[in-house]
Write a structure and sequence with these properties.
homodimer; 2 domains; elongated
């Protein structure tokens, strides 16, 4: 996403009021914040990190421009010094993160910001907003990918996604998690994501005759038409497609396939497959859509329904069963001292942390250990440096590379984590002794137990 | 919202492929599409219309600009004629709609577009995207308003809203539904919505001493500080606030209140209220936040918890219990003939429609009747003309006027519709004989039953 006009003020008011106070009282030492998920939803065995590129774009591009500064100055809420400070604002910090497409679990830092306190604080609201949403959708999409057993999956969710940015970023998150593409044109233009489309019921209804509608569409798209056959009677629609294909073959026009969007999709698909096959359209694909999610995909494919591809929409782009994650961006260290909050039910592990992941010979996750930085454990440290002095350390990672990583991650997922049904207990990282010791030390220092 | 770069391609691919075919085959007669909700969620007794202003902005501003046209021309998917047609595109149609803030029910058109078929078709995806989301959030927010019994409600949801636009439009939808304001600064700048903020745990934790943190914040915001007291021990925090207030009173600094964000909010609020009152801070408000929704608000207020205001966040901005509505934008008429789809479980009422609402002497809804245009019924016709020849008929309605309408609508809601708990059956509009007759006629014409 390019920097949206006004994005600098896309934040919570308290960030600005705290900042003014930090600056007035000299709280400008180095702070470390980490973004993590406190607790996995019962129906998510793992999460897939996503949104880092947009987060880094935001940090690199963050500026307070004319209209925003004018608003700050005129609001009567802030000092002149503070407005001047905002005018010169650049993010100058360091970022460590899990690469996009990495599988992760509760308590594991996904992103760590190290920067002067006011800078690290200011970016909280939008960083959460960006990392939370794409991670939410990529994690849901990954479940669809596991359920789909290699069938073609297309994101159809734009219309009921929560606004423009959600629609776009959902298309990106689905693609990186393994979807074949999206119906959202702008996502194709922006990121080169393959785009797919069929036709709507309105196209059929605008014609007085369904067969004529099919013919018009096929003539306009001679090698790519996927015809929607459920407007009036699905099997009758399939028979019209067969007759049309025979007639148009001479003109070199090939019907690519049909779409079914209502009713018992498995039963219709079976009857439609038979009609198409008997009509010589063995190559024509059957595409299905309508209220799909990972459970419905699994159910359809278990019954052996002859469906080649699926449009998955609303339930995916809203992550309908789990529309948010319990995530946070918390202060872990300030001025060289580790910090934690101890609010009831919301205590956090303090300090700068690293996650070490041990894998077996097949590359499957065996053990994650969460510990303080500089306390190496067996396996691989997952957080890597991605930004220094407010600049990316490398160009944005190609989306195809992220997608390849996610594919490897899903292929190597232990069987227990591949199941769609919620397990009794979640996979959890182990807490290293060094981290436990630090937490106890912090509590003693702040008078806690 | 100003026209976002690339918004013209924020659509589903099939809109473009259908358009090219419409144009090639001369399907450019007048079409009528209506946006409506097929079925209310079990936990919504009514919905509140919202998003019309953004929908009209979109229709007025929709243009295909340089980079989008270049993408269309280079994609290899479309004809040169079609790209030229897009280059000259302006929306030239007519729009009728429910005013924002109007209560409505299943099957009732919220917005009707009358325009040449390609124009009316092209705008489908983004119109749904805009109307669906704000209606979803305004309807959830209205339930919070009903539950809150006049307490101050503030939208705290930006960070977990689904992206930037969702965060902004959620702030708008909450405000029009009766919230006092939002924490999202940009919503304040853009629409003049009152903004609210307190402080975060990180502010406290950055200090070595909680009392010192309180003092720094209060000195920076001498008449407006709401201090977060639950970082370590809520009641101990309240006692520190009392001691600080005594000390700062001489300097003319007044503590506005405290916020509690964790634990048993009602129990903490009672103990904190007693501490504040005994300490002479009877005027100080108690603000609560943390996993709130309409049910939690109702529960807290039923127990008489002394809480003056609430920050409602994630569950509101994601409409967590109902993260989407079963809504559609369907072709109702083309070239002067009514149309409907009959797909299983998704049949629609055909033709251009109007909703007539009858009220009792107190203004409470007694009966809604859905019928064809030009078939007046008792009461008031709800759909009003808002756009002609692609231009608004009046300047955008002030948000305060929308808010006043929503307040009247909620005040006059029949008791059965005010309850938070799902009812056995939903309130439903009656279908007028003229509309039933039209549906039967359409079915005969398209060979249905």
């Amino acid at each position: 996403m390019s920097q949206a006009h006004g994005e600098a003020l896309l934040t919570d008011l308290y960030q600005l009021t705290m900042l003014q106070s930090y600056l007035e009282h000299g709280y400008t030492d180095t702070a470390v914040f980490e973004f993590f998920v406190r607790k996995l939803p019962r129906t998510r065995a793992f999460l897939l990190a996503a949104g880092l590129e947009q987060a880094l774009d935001y940090l690199e591009g963050l500026r307070f421009t004319g209209p925003e500064l004018e608003w700050v100055r005129r609001s009567g809420r802030f000092s002149r010094d503070f407005a001047d400070w905002l005018e010169g604002f650049r993010f100058s910090g360091e970022v460590h993160a899990l690469p996009e497409g990495t599988v992760f679990f509760a308590d594991e830092p996904v992103l760590r910001v190290t920067a002067p306190l006011p800078e690290a604080q200011l970016v909280e609201s939008r960083l959460i907003n960006l990392l939370h949403f794409q991670t939410l959708i990529a994690s849901k999409a990954a479940r669809c990918v596991l359920a789909a057993r290699g069938s073609l999956l297309v994101d159809f969710g734009m219309r009921r996604a929560h606004g423009a940015e959600a629609a776009l970023l959902a298309a990106r998150a689905c693609y990186l998690a393994g979807f074949a593409g999206t119906a959202t044109v702008l996502a194709g233009m922006r990121w080169g994501i393959p785009i797919y489309g069929t036709m709507a019921h309105s196209y059929i209804e605008a014609h007085d005759d369904e067969a004529e509608a099919f013919e018009h569409f096929a003539r306009s798209h001679p090698d790519n038409a996927v015809l929607l056959i459920d407007t009036y009677d699905t099997e009758a629609g399939a028979r019209k497609v067969v007759r049309l294909a025979e007639r148009l073959a001479a003109a070199g026009i090939r019907i690519r396939g049909v779409r079914i969007d209502s009713g018992d999709l498995a039963a219709h698909a079976r009857r439609v497959r038979a009609i198409l096959d008997q009509g010589g359209l063995r190559e024509a694909i059957i595409f299905a859509s309508g209220n799909l999610d990972e459970h419905e995909l699994a159910r359809l494919l278990e019954t052996g329904a002859p469906i080649d591809g699926f449009g998955v929409g609303t339930r995916l782009d809203t992550s309908a069963d789990v529309p948010y994650l319990d995530c946070a961006y918390k202060l872990m260290e300030y001025a060289g001292r580790a910090r934690r909050k101890r609010s009831e039910g919301k205590a956090t592990w303090p300090g700068r942390k690293q996650v070490w992941r041990e894998r077996d010979a097949e590359g499957r996750i065996v053990r994650d250990v969460l510990t303080v930085e500089g306390d190496p454990q067996p396996g691989e440290g997952l957080l890597v440096p991605v930004m220094r002095d407010g600049r990316r350390l490398a160009p944005p990672e190609p989306l195809e590379a992220v997608r390849a990583r996610a594919r490897r991650e899903l292929e190597r997922l232990p069987p227990a984590l591949r199941r769609l049904e919620p397990a009794e207990t979640h996979f959890a990282c182990e807490i290293a002794p060094a981290l436990r010791a630090l937490a106890a030390e912090v509590d003693r220092a702040t008078g806690g137990g």
